[in-house]
Amino acid sequence: MASGKAVIRARPWVAASFLLPALLLLGALVVYPIGYTVWRSLFDASGDGFVGLSNFADIFTEDDTRTALRNNVIWIVVAPTICTVLGLIFAVMTERIRWATAFKLIVFMPMAISMLAAGIIFRLVYEQDPDRGVANAVATTVHDTFSGSSTWPDAEPRPDGALQAQEDGSYLLAEPVTAGEPVLLPLVGIPQPELEGADPAEVAAGGGQEVTGTVWRDFTPGGEGTENTVDPGEEGLAGITVEAVRDGDVVASATTGDDGTFTLPAEADGAQLRLAADSFTAPYNGVEWLGPSLITPAIIASYVWMWAGFAMVLIAAGLAAVPRETLEAARVDGANEWQIFRRVTVPLLAPVLAVVMVTLMINVMKIFDLVLVIPPQSSQADANVLALELYQESFISGGNPGLGSAIAVLLLLLAVPVMLNNIRRLRRENQR
């Protein structure tokens, strides 16, 4: 019976007839688009003027394309590395826990979500408002647990009142106080919702050697009240820190009660009163995840959430093929678990880790959906990547298809070395 090679040599037209449909399809869908893109990258926006390599020079000189190129480098270095490391950790963990199947399911589940849907999800997760954004809800909860929040962030003195705003956010009563004479410290500007459950304000009792006073909202709905007077129905401001200051030093302090009254010891006689700034500072509103400085790390985090499960599954498959005798021999020789992981497991998994890294590097080179959906318009330019810049230059009105084609060629050139290295590595493995 003739061998396959002999048949091909004797009847080359047979092989050609089988290969022709695939070659035509390959040429129409791959070769022609690549060739046309390279040709188009040598022309201007209209396609009529030949500009040579000018479009490629613009990639490294224009601000938008330079930002996109820089962000792509960050993506290529950071995202695959984090995904691979987390995948390795998760894969090792699944061999040591009882509920490994459920854990794998949970970690891999985001892979079933499209990039567009994941972008919408994380756009909501990163919302600045803690009542809507999960990330800032967690951040504000942790912050307020350890630092607390201001008592009355919207309160302020009357513009013509005795209390004067200071640069540090505190309010100072310029005139020294006298023991036995109740001090009135009115504030305004507090929305009614913040006063829900507040007690009515009371005038502090006078007499004695102590300094007493009242801090309250000096406003009566309907405008029937009198300024600088504690009128019926006006609310006391609880929890405000009142400090007695003499020569720049705090000699005494007190906190207002539910009815807004406070009492300072005799040391406060003759001092100035100051309402501490920490009672009026704006509440912590979380991290600006979608701001220019954090937008790229925030999008990378969403990508890691999706693709760490992919890395885990591949690495877990490689880990299952690791000879158990080798691991047991290392334990018999006295190696601890960390030494086994670092000197035995990781080297044996090196081919699998390389596959995961290369696959993810190629994947992030063309990242597009997340960068399009997650950033608001104000941060879109700071999160820009080459694939998104290619789309905007090629298809958005006012763009430059020549520059977009040049970006596409650059992406191809960046991917070719990675693919060639992967092919070379696969060939070496097949020869073993």
Brief description of this entry?
This protein is α+β, with helices and mostly antiparallel strands and 432 residues long. It contains 14 helices and 8 strands.
Count up the domains.
2
What's the total helix number?
14
What string, H for helix and E for strand, traces the elements in order? HHHHHHHEEEEEEEEHHHHHHH
Basic shape: elongated
Average predicted confidence as pLDDT: 87
Q: What is the alpha-carbon Rg in Å?
A: 34 Å
CATH superfamily of the largest domain: MetI-like
Largest sheet: 5 strands, antiparallel
Helix content: 40-55%
> Can you tell me the CATH class of the largest domain?
Mainly Alpha
Spans where pLDDT lies below 50 across 5 or more residues:
none
At the fold tier of CATH, the topology name of the largest domain is: MetI-like fold
Going across the major beta sheet, what is the strand order? 1-2-8-5-6
| DSSP E strands, number | 8
Structural class: alpha+beta
Q: Compute the separation of the termini in Å.
A: 30 Å
* CATH architecture verdict of the largest domain: Orthogonal Bundle
